[in-house]
Amino acid sequence: MPKVYLLTGSNQGPGIEMLNTAAQHIQVYIGPIITRSSLYKTAPWGNTHQQDFLNQVLVVETALAPLEILKQILVIETGMGRVRQFKWAPRTIDIDMLFYDNLVVDEVDLQVPHPLLHQRRFTLIPLVEIAPYFTHPTLQLSMVELLDKCEDDGIVEKL
Q: Nearest Cα to 74, choosing from 43, 109, 100?
């Protein structure tokens, strides 16, 4: 079965509980989690005038296609109280699809690999923890190499 790499994040409400609840929903609606990174406290990115985030990367086996996964992600986020106010706003839960095996998807509503993941330490550090030599299908660099080249200096602390 294909493996999808998901980044979960929260900076509103009880963060650990939000990530755990998201993981439970992901297992029900997307597929079994086969690997999960540690939890990380991370500086906000994009809109830096907000609380720190808790983040975690999950690797999930799935029978769903990428656009079906996106639909389920939106259902989970909405069900957990996410309200989309503006780009990079504070949120109860955020679930980003980072990779879907080595597939490249370029649709209006979905781009996989996630187009900004190589610019974000809060994404790369948990990826390096669980899949250091996974190769980005378009950049042709491993997660270790991407982290080494990343210019983001945001704080990422393992809990």
A: 109
pLDDT for residue 147:
98
pLDDT (0 to 100) of residue 146? 98
Task: State the pTM of this model.
Answer: 0.94
Residues annotated as part of the active site: 82, 91, 94, 96
Both structure tokens of 129: 């923890």
Residue 150: give its domain's CATH number: 3.30.70.560
For residue 29, name the pLDDT band (cuts at 50, 70, 90). very high
Q: How many domains does one find in the chain? A: 1
Domain coverage including residue 147: 3-158
Distance of CA 65 to the CA centre of its chain: 17
